[in-house]
Structures are given as structure tokens and as C-alpha cells.
């Protein structure tokens, strides 16, 4: 388990914002799945519920021996705290992927 604090932004009451990460499965796993929640801050509530349900239902115990799982909760902590789809810079993370093959727009 790890929590990564946002270096600049804060919640509506000035509280610290974090992206939380949990890793399951063996460290030696040759494969790793990544599950994100909260890319759009407003969706973090349902994403969090799904992640918690998977853990409480024994999901980590059912992983194949060669598979790890990385869960990232609240990928957009500012959007989560401020009930917004976007980041503090008004960036929609699902709409702003950059293709490194063709260069920046």
C-alpha cells in the first residue's frame, strides 16, 4: 500500500490530496494488470466501491500465481475532492492522451 500526495493542489477545505495504490500478488509475477478508479473525479465513488468489493470478496486470493494486480484509487484526486471530471488545470484525463509517435498537438 502507498499513498502519493499531490504536490500542489488541495481539497475544498485545504486538505491534502492523495492517489492511493495497492499491489496484490507475488512480486515475481510475470504479468501485471492495472485497475484505475477516479480518472474522472466524479466516478471515483463507484470505482472505489468496485475495488473494495473485489478485495472483500477475496479477489486477491484468486489471482493466478503468475499475475499481479496494481490498483490505483483516485487517479484524479482534485477532481474527486471537487466533484469534477477534470483536474485542477481543467484537463480531462480521458480526453488528453498524447500519441508520442506523432508528437504533441
Briefly say what this structure is:
The chain contains 2 helices and 4 strands; from the N terminus they run βββαβα.
Distance from N terminus to C terminus (CA atoms, Å) equals 36 Å
Q: Give the strand content.
A: 25-35%
The succession of helices and strands, N to C, reads EEEHEH
Gyration radius over CA: 16 Å
Helix-strand category: alpha+beta
Q: What would the average pLDDT be, to the nearest integer?
A: 93
Helix content: 10-25%
Number of DSSP strand runs: 4
Shape: globular
Q: What is the count of helical runs?
A: 2
Largest beta sheet: strand ordering: 1-2-4-3
| Largest sheet properties | 4 strands, mixed
pLDDT < 50 stretches: none
Describe the structure.
The protein is of the alpha+beta class and 105 residues long. It is built from two helices and four strands. Strands 1-2-4-3 form a four-stranded mixed beta sheet. The model has no long low-confidence stretch (mean pLDDT 93).
